[in-house]
Write a structure and sequence with these properties.
It is a single chain. The chain is an alpha/beta fold. The chain has one domain (5-237): NAD(P)-binding Rossmann-like Domain (Rossmann fold, 3-Layer(aba) Sandwich), CATH 3.40.50.720. Helices cover 33% and strands 18% of the residues. Helix 1 (21-31) packs across helix 5 (213-226) and helix 3 runs parallel beside helix 4. It starts with 10 loop residues before the first strand and ends in an 8-residue tail after the last strand. The structure holds NADP nicotinamide-adenine-dinucleotide phosphate (NAP).
Length: 245
Amino acid sequence: MNSLQSYGDNLNIALIGASGGIGHAVLQQLLENANVARVYSFARQPLAAAPGHYPGHLDIADEGSIERAATSLKGVSLHLILVTTGLLHSETLRPEKSLRQLEADNLQQLISINSLGPMLVAKHFLPLVPRKQRSAFVAISARVGSISDNRLGGWYSYRASKAALNMLLQCLSIESRLRYPKLVVAGLHPGTVNTGLSEPFQRSVKPEQLFTPAQSARYLLKVLDGLSEADSGGVFAWDGERIPA
Ligand SMILES: NC(=O)c1ccc[n+]([C@@H]2O[C@H](COP(=O)([O-])OP(=O)(O)OC[C@H]3O[C@@H](n4cnc5c(N)ncnc54)[C@H](OP(=O)(O)O)[C@@H]3O)[C@@H](O)[C@H]2O)c1
């Protein structure tokens, strides 16, 4: 069982996107982790409070709500900030199979939620991180955001939004080196996980390659535990492999 031991004990963690398939599994494992003191979870519909669990409201597409969420933690020292929000499809949005299906509104929505949202979280939450302590800012990315790994094409907007997220994380890792020398900034690819997000696209996935959310959460927390400052700015898969840009 992963312990996040490398970050020390008595950890305070902000988890943005706790209502999602992966986010909720991460939340449950954090609440069972002896090194974790408090989890401040955020979602559009706040979850139920429990010992060590302090839920709040946040809409990743609304900077005002992100700022208010960060302000609600004033005085808290955060060791880990985890962003598990994301969007691939909705009633009005389908990943494009061809250029003909590209719609400005859809691309803009995915950029807003998958790329800009996590960075606005960094903008407002990072001031809560102690400057000299080991800490991490991590957002869930996706392997399909790798430009050099893109051999199949398609999914223009989702791929672009995750590639943009990866670039923004790299910029953040460079800027934060001086102010937060022990901060690790990273994107994580969770594998193909059985959640609402992947549900319409699971037909071609072999059963052994489809992770449960709990399985993926376990892998992700283990990778997070093993990341060092030298890894900052990178994107890592569920098995710890570095994903090329
Ligand atoms: N599942 C996979 O196979 C897979 C593979 C690669 C990468 N990923 C990435 O993993 C991350 C988590 O995905 P998942 O599989 O757990 O999907 P999910 O179950 O659909 O969860 C998505 C989460 O994002 C939140 N969200 C969406 N729009 C939001 C908004 N405007 N404000 C606040 N929260 C918002 C959802 O909140 P609500 O509950 O309020 O809707 C939910 O908590 C995403 O970044 C996804 O791209 C997933």
